[in-house]
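Regression test case RT-17, inverse folding.

Input:
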């Protein structure tokens, strides 16, 4: 059905929810000559007036995010292509988003594999990626991090040292995973996979790019160590929080870049076998240990908020094209697909 709709699209409008990474998505779309549509809750956000280059050409106001599906015909009349981001999928719900009958950039089948931590692990381990160990409740005998399923900006994570601490804090009405807590440096690596490009780092089909790297600023885990050990603070009722409040730019030792591309390549090749490919931007959330080995603890299969650091380019993206953001890279992929009559290969 989506493929039939695309046959009638002339000049697409790039649409997304006004949150997360929408500023760079709209800015990048405008740079590639596309019209833009911001989906806003209750009323258009006033702060867009402060950023005229990133303000959408038009707003579509909804009373609740579930209403987006009901406004399908309105989106299609504007030849809309929806760009998913973390907030968009979380607000609407992964299942509802998968069923949204509006052309969407990327492969929405990835949501089945990304939103379920068991399937996510199957995907990454099947690709030969090293991940933190995973434990059942009975096996916990060391520091672990407990995570609920879904993207919630780190608000659903907590550290525990034993089973008793987990049982005291965990919400058993939600699905959760218990992972080994790995000491090291966190690197959130921003990739872009194009199934229609031929120039660059070649895979079995298409090419792979690295557009930037960040680490998240999390409240209050990034500063809590100043007050004492986590165990001591816990006695006072102060527990670490992983709620993401911002991002910091990072670059890697150049000697680690081959490992970075090898990880991305393995993830894409396995995704091609499992569900037809993780198309467009994705992020491997990693820890680099003192032995210079990467452990991947999560994948985000869409544009991530850390890319907002690089709206005017990054130390990596600038070596592909000056001033290249992930938002602009998405728009360039759509433009290239349109020019080559291959829109259905990157929009589902």
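Golden output:
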């Amino acid at each position: 059905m989506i493929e039939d709709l695309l046959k009638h699209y002339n000049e697409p409008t790039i649409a997304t929810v006004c949150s997360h990474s929408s500023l760079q998505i709209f800015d990048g779309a405008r740079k590639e000559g596309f019209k833009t549509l911001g989906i806003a809750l209750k009323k258009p956000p006033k702060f867009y007036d402060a950023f005229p280059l990133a303000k959408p050409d038009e707003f579509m106001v909804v009373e609740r995010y579930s209403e987006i599906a009901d406004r399908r015909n309105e989106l299609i009349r504007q030849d809309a292509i929806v760009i998913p981001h973390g907030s968009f999928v979380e607000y609407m719900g992964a299942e509802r988003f998968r069923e949204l009958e509006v052309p969407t950039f990327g492969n929405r089948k990835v949501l089945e594999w990304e939103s379920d931590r068991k399937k996510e692990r199957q995907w990454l381990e099947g690709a030969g990626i090293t991940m933190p160990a995973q434990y059942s409740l009975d096996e916990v005998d060391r520091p672990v991090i407990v995570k609920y399923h879904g993207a919630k900006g780190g608000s659903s994570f907590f550290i525990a040292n034993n089973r008793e601490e987990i049982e005291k804090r965990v919400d058993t009405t939600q699905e959760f995973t218990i992972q080994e807590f790995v000491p090291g440096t966190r690197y959130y690596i921003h990739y872009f996979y194009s199934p229609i490009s031929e120039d660059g780092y070649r895979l079995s089909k298409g090419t792979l790019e690295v557009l930037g790297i960040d680490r998240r600023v999390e409240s209050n885990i990034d500063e809590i160590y100043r007050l004492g050990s986590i165990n001591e603070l816990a006695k006072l009722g102060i527990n670490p929080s992983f709620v993401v409040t911002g991002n910091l730019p990072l670059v890697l030792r150049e000697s680690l870049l081959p490992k970075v591309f090898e990880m991305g390549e393995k993830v894409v090749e396995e995704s091609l076998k499992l569900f037809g490919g993780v198309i467009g931007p994705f992020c491997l959330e990693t820890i680099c240990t003192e032995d210079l080995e990467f452990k991947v603890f999560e994948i985000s299969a869409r544009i991530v908020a850390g890319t907002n650091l690089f709206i005017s380019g990054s130390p990596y993206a600038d070596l592909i094209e000056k001033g290249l953001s992930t938002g602009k890279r998405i728009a360039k992929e759509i433009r290239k697909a349109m020019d080559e009559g291959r829109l259905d290969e990157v929009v589902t």
